[in-house]
């Protein structure tokens, strides 16, 4: 094994690795500064030892002391309403399919609301997921008002005493003011029909997204009070490091990660495991 | 608008040096520190930024520049030239085969905008070039992908070739081209399923489609919001398939759009079109020079 020293080169390489994981320059600089101080204070020279300090610091940056927790807010007597939001193509509909499967296999009854009435084939896509998983999909015609679909879906969920209602919405870029207003209206209808709902508003982020994800989180939070993030497409080579800044600055925790296109490719988020994955490359380099 | 944030940052930086009567190496260095940060915050790939800063530095501290009468402006000129270079030269046109149909393959990661862009390109080909395209539904994996393309074809009143989702994409592509010849469709636009560049099986499938159909264009569709990974993806698709162009989508957002700069730099593949919305007319040709000017505000 080749043990390197914890010197300027080491920190520079760490900086590069984290920037390439989309952690963002500001966060990286903050981390490196703190690391350097810590390394000096504890008199660390071994890279093995420094690894755990890096993990520690990253988790610290991620978690802070906002107390946000990654459990889903599930109601004892339902229905629990989960609203999915996010920009175009990030994986909302697919994640809904996966999540419905997860709840179903826990023995819960699930209904899906086809709230994307805009994109070509969006309703049919959710219907395919519905029949794959074996849950009902409430829909209206393409082009109809998404708020009306939600209203219908809530009545169905109440009538059938469903445990969980998961609401799909059309992808929208956060700078489209009208579309964000439409989303606010969708949420208002849900709030009006079931006090306390939606119990979760999950923002879906594509791990390949760069620094724009922070603006996405900020704007969707303002519009819909996002309660958690699903970070998708982590089965690729992108790391989605921007979630650190999102948690740090906006206190929105990642709750789930997407690891593929199949029903089972959804996992609960594990901060320590995730953070380690961000700089695992650096570690591998040292170990050969 | 996309690129706006980057434009603001760079213009602020440039402003500091523009009017200076004397510029020394330290000034250039300071400016380039800011430029570096602005580019990184815009998601330009780390390595691309490094090379860019190095090149500008070398040229800017060259004798002619610093000793010129308007050194500040000369430095800015260097930055603009290098930025334009980074984006690629002249805008490029869409291929037209001398033996129709012209075959265009759309490839890329999941959710990038392939299917939508397939519809947009078909629309553009008919409207602007008076062509008769057919859309080919070769995504047999994503739920309702075929239905999505058929809906777009319907909206455009254009034919969509499909054999359902039980026939291999290679076979679908083969039969689509035969049919296109019979029907005198002069463009065949093949919509393929989204896939990871590291998925050997699915990348193999694309290679087989390419082998069989000998496409005139292979367009990589890339989400403009993509971060540092854009270069890995583009490089890998390029190595495996030999891309002829890139389409950058979702530029109607407020991303700083660094992927645009990075991809061109590492693949040497021109960005040919940009997607500016979800509607089928929201596509534009890409003009690197104009974009560089806009970013630098000149
Ligand atoms: N590799 C991978 N692909 C994913 C994952 N999640 C979703 N996808 C794929 O990403 C593409 C887009 O997913 P959708 O679920 O349609 O995304 P969406 O956010 O609903 O898209 P719009 O409704 O159009 O805004 C599809 O091809 C999915 O199969 C994931 O975790 N990994
Ligand atoms: N705002 C905006 N949305 C776009 C643009 N291009 C595509 N989209 C949207 O992005 C989402 C994904 O587009 P698709 O065309 O389904 O993407 P795809 O690459 O075919 O996805 P897969 O087949 O699942 O890999 C949809 O919601 C589209 O409406 C664009 O230029 N601007
Ligand atoms: K995407
Ligand atoms: Mg969807
Ligand atoms: Mg598609």
Structure description:
The complex is a heterodimer of chains A (288) and B (298). Chain A is of the alpha/beta class. In chain A, 50% of the residues lie in helices and 14% in strands. Chain A has helices spanning 8-20, 25-42, 47-63, 92-105, 122-133, 146-159, 177-193, 212-224, 242-250, 271-287, and strands at residues 80-85, 110-115, 136-138, 164-169, 200-206, 228-232, 254-258, 266-268. In chain A, strand 7 and strand 8 form a beta hairpin. Chain B is of the alpha/beta class and 298 residues long. In chain B, strands 3-2-4-1-5-6-7-8 form an 8-stranded mixed sheet, with helices on both faces. In chain B, helix 3 (46-60) packs antiparallel against helix 5, helix 5 (71-87) crosses helix 12 and helix 6 runs parallel beside helix 7. The longest helix of chain B has 17 residues, at 25-41. The radius of gyration of chain B is 21 Å and the shape is elongated. At the A-B interface, helix 1, helix 5 and helix 8 of A face helix 2, helix 7 and helix 10 of B. The structure holds guanosine-5'-triphosphate (2 copies), potassium ion and magnesium ion (2 copies).
Write the layout of secondary structure elements.
The complex is a heterodimer of chains A (288) and B (298).
Chain A: H1 8-20, H2 25-42, H3 47-63, E1 80-85, H4 92-105, E2 110-115, H5 122-133, E3 136-138, H6 146-159, E4 164-169, H7 177-193, E5 200-206, H8 212-224, E6 228-232, H9 242-250, E7 254-258, E8 266-268, H10 271-287
Parallel strand pairs in A: 1-4, 1-5, 2-3, 2-4, 5-6, 6-7
Antiparallel strand pairs in A: 7-8
Helix pairs in contact in A: 1-2, 1-10, 2-3, 3-9, 3-10, 4-5, 6-7, 8-9
Chain B: H1 4-18, H2 25-41, H3 46-60, H4 63-66, H5 71-87, E1 102-107, H6 114-129, E2 133-138, H7 145-156, E3 160-161, H8 169-183, E4 187-192, H9 200-213, E5 217-223, H10 230-241, E6 245-249, H11 258-267, E7 271-275, E8 283-285, H12 288-296
Parallel strand pairs in B: 1-4, 1-5, 2-3, 2-4, 5-6, 6-7
Antiparallel strand pairs in B: 7-8
Helix pairs in contact in B: 1-2, 2-3, 3-5, 5-12, 6-7, 8-9, 10-11
Potassium ion sits between chains A (89-90, 206, 208) and B (111-112, 223).
């Amino acid at each position: 094994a080749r043990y390197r020293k914890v010197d300027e080169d080491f920190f520079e390489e760490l900086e590069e690795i984290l920037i390439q994981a989309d952690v963002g320059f500001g966060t990286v600089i903050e981390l490196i500064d703190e690391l350097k101080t810590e390394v000096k204070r504890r008199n660390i020279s071994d890279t093995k030892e420094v690894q755990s300090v890096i993990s520690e610091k990253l988790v610290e940056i991620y978690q802070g002391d906002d107390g946000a927790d990654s459990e889903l807010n599930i109601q004892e007597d339902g229905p629990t309403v989960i609203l999915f939001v996010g920009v175009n193509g990030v994986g909302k509909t697919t994640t809904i399919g996966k999540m419905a499967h997860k709840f179903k296999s826990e023995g819960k009854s699930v209904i899906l609301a086809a709230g994307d009435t805009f994109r070509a084939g969006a309703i049919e896509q959710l219907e395919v997921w519905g029949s794959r998983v074996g849950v009902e999909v409430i829909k209206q015609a393409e082009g109809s008002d998404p708020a009306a679909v939600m209203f219908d879906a809530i009545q169905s969920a109440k009538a059938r005493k469903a445990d969980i209602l998961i609401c799909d919405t059309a992808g929208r870029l956060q700078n489209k003011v009208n579309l964000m207003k439409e989303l606010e209206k969708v949420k208002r209808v849900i709030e009006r029909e079931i006090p306390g709902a939606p119990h979760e508003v999950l923002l879906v982020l594509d791990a390949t997204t760069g620094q724009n994800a922070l603006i996405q989180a900020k704007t969707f939070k303002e519009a819909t009070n996002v309660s958690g993030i699903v970070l998708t497409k982590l089965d690729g080579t992108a790391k989605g490091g921007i979630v650190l800044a999102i948690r740090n600055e906006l206190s929105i925790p990642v709750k789930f990660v997407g690891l593929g296109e199949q029903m089972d490719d959804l996992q609960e988020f594990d901060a320590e495991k995730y953070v380690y994955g961000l700089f695992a490359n650096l570690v591998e380099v040292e170990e050969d | 608008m996309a690129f706006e944030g980057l434009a603001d940052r760079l213009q602020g930086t440039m402003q500091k040096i523009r009017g200076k009567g004397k510029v020394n190496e330290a000034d250039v260095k300071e400016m380039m520190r800011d430029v570096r940060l602005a580019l990184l915050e815009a998601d330009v790939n780390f390595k691309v930024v490094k090379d860019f800063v190095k090149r500008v530095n070398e040229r800017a501290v060259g004798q002619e520049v610093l000793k010129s009468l308007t050194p500040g402006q000369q430095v800015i000129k260097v930055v603009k030239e290098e930025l334009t270079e980074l984006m690629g030269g002249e805008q490029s046109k869409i291929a037209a085969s001398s033996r129709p149909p012209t075959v265009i393959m759309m490839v890329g990661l999941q959710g990038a905008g392939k299917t939508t862009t397939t519809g947009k390109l078909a629309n553009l080909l008919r409207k602007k070039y008076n062509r008769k395209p057919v859309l080919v539904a070769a995504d047999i994996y994503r739920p309702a992908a075929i239905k999505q393309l058929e809906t777009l074809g319907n909206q455009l009143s254009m034919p969509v070739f499909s054999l359902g989702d039980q026939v291999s994409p290679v076979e679908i592509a083969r039969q689509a081209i035969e049919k296109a010849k019979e029907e005198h469709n002069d463009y065949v636009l093949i919509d393929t399923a989204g896939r990871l560049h590291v998925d050997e099986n699915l990348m193999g499938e694309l290679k087989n489609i390419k082998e069989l159909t000998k496409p005139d264009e292979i367009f990589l569709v890339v989400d403009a919001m993509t971060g540092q990974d854009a270069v890995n993806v583009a490089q890998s698709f390029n190595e495996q398939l030999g891309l002829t162009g890139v389409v950058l989508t979702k530029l109607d957002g407020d991303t700083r759009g660094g992927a645009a700069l990075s991809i061109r730099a590492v693949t040497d593949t021109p960005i040919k079109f940009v997607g500016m919305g979800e509607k089928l007319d929201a596509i534009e040709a890409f003009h690197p020079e104009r974009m560089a000017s806009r970013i630098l505000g000149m």
